[in-house]
tRNA N6-adenosine threonylcarbamoyltransferase (Thauera terpenica 58Eu), 331 residues
Amino acid sequence: MKVLGIETSCDETGVAVYDTQEGLLAHCLHSQIDLHAAYGGVVPELASRDHIRRLPILLTQTLELAGLNAADIDAVAYTSGPGLAGALLVGASVAESFALARGIPALPVHHLEGHLLSPLLSADPPQFPFVALLVSGGHTQLMRVRRVGDYALLGESVDDAAGEAFDKTAKLLGLGYPGGPQLARLATQGVAGRFRLPRPMLHSGDLDFSFSGLKTAVLNVVSGPEWDPERMADLAAEFQHAVAEVLCAKALAALKKTGLKTLVVAGGVGANQHLRQVLDEALQKKGGRVHYPEPALCTDNGAMIAFAGALRLAAGEVVGGEPAVRIRPRW
Ligand code: KG4
Ligand code: ZN
């Protein structure tokens, strides 16, 4: 079965084809970073318009790359939510129209399920069951994953997501957009511990997170009378250490609670090298292992949506009802 995947939930247009026999056949991605950079964040209306411009081109490119015609596709999977309503509508409309025209099923997919399953696309995939740490711009969650479709939420952020904290902190340090990678780059030039930032909810005894106070703590440092901009890299390093320390401690607690040894990390913040190092070392000490998506599949992409849809359809999920453009922005 060849499944076309379409992702347009935020500022990346992603299209891919996943074959349940042969694996990922092709995936194409267009990032809108340049489009939104001048505004310091994603402008929803510009995002929707750019998805409209790019999606037909990417669709043709992806089919060409895969050596397929539209008639070879057996099903379409698309990101139904959560995300920006206007952006989601573009992908959902194209996916549902494609499916209707070809008389094939169209399956709405949860964006986070795509992220969560994306490490299974790697050459050395994790085995079920595992604990997943989802760290994106919109979510910070720990989940117990028994199999495809069987997810239990163990804990989540009560305020800002980890990626959001990176982005907001980068912004108040005057770094460019997108902030997460820029802050991470600056942090490599600094030394953690020269400033002391809090480790929010480290000892809360549950598996929840809170990151908004960390951003405020950074704001207090940079607006204080002693602040020296020359020390920005040290502050960035301390911020990154604080986030990684809390994420790691809670991930270990989740593994302990569930009795599992495998951790899967997904979402944009999973690309952070320091976080990876901290998690790898901690899990190694415990005799466990961490799995990540391949670097190209860490951020939003169509491959994870095609893959999640293919696994669901292969497991017997049936798409029913009248054709409809199904979006759930706050899913
Ligand atoms: O998963 P993703 O691409 O989109 C969402 O679904 O949110 O994650 C994007 C988030 C942004 O907040 C971005 O700043 C963050 O991931 N991010 C990073 C790094 N690369 C991306 N944060 C820290 N370090 C990085 N290297
Ligand atoms: Zn995402």
In short: The two ends are 27 Å apart (CA to CA). The mean pLDDT is 96. Residues 6 and 78 are 5 Å apart (CA to CA). DSSP finds ten helices and ten strands in the chain.
